[in-house]
Design a protein that fits this description.
Number of strands: 6
Oligomer: single chain
Strand order of the largest sheet: 2-3-1-6
CATH architecture of the domain at 6-86: 2-Layer Sandwich
Largest sheet: 4 strands, antiparallel
Distance between the termini: 64 Å
CATH class of the domain at 6-86: Alpha Beta
Number of helices: 6
Structural class: alpha+beta
Helix content: 25-40%
Radius of gyration: 27 Å
Strand content: 15-25%
Amino acid sequence: MTEARWKATVYVGGLAPVVTSTHIYDAFIPFGEIVDVSIPKNDKPGATEPHRGFAYVEFEEAEDAKEAIDNMDQAELFGRILKVSASKPPKSAEGGLNSRTAVWEQESWLAEHAIGEEDKMAEDKAHNGDHPMQGLEGLDVAGPKPE
């Protein structure tokens, strides 16, 4: 999801177990055109609740999301007080430690740690072929050489 889409998305927390996406849609449609309503399911083993108690509502326009936050934060739905706030992109969307992509495969890491061919050749010349593992080819056990 792009940065612009996240700005048009609100987080709705404090949902009662009986709340469905239709209830959320009906409660938030007065503030603008809704693109999507997402209620993450409760995947924990043995869980009795159908969802995790929060939802994301994506509006067509960022202004509509702001209007929904202003009007629905601290509102009551099915006996529960809602916490409605601007949605934040998940860390995995931006990369970093919580990403599902290895850090060395992320563009930001590659840009920061990239080594050019000239740097590699200069590094090779600096070592003059002295590889730390050189001369150990004949060993088949760890530890000092037997005498």
